[in-house]
Amino acid sequence: MKTYHDSTFGYIMRYPDFFVQLPDSLDPEPGCCTFRFWNVEQINLSGYVLGNPEQLTVQQMKDSLVHENHDVKIRTLADTLIISSPLYAEDGVVDGYRSYAKYVRHRKLWFVQSLSYPVECEDAVRRIKHQIDSWTVWENVIPQKCFIPKRRRQTFMYSHKSYS
Fold first, then answer.
1. Which of 20, 29, 42, 110 is the most buried (most CB within 10 A)?
2. Which residues of 84-100 are buried (b: 16+ CB within 10 A; e: fewer)?
């Protein structure tokens, strides 16, 4: 597996070696990336960030997704949603395709990793789905205190170094 590190929001995601990253020009929004495998069938793995200005809770986000989509299965864990559903496009359901996504809530943002794939590739994408299930937005981040004079709010800087 290769590792992608988003320079705008700092999230990390892994993707299979044989997937090709689409040029950034095809993902115009900051924080977006797409990796694709296209042999006979097309499989897309994407990462993106959604604003959450209303600070929706996990339950509120779940309710809105269930309202928008039919035949959706959702698991919730702390600040996380894992969603499995048919793949939807602007025109409705894309026949023969599924979508699998993990939404991670952090302050006023939702970090999302999603996979779209043909139904007949369900067994082939099992490892990728497991990778999505275990995805943490940031890996090896160790907060370090900044020493700030008293009466000011404490802030933290983050280091991506791994201390063993």
1. 110
2. ebbbbeeeeeeeebbbb
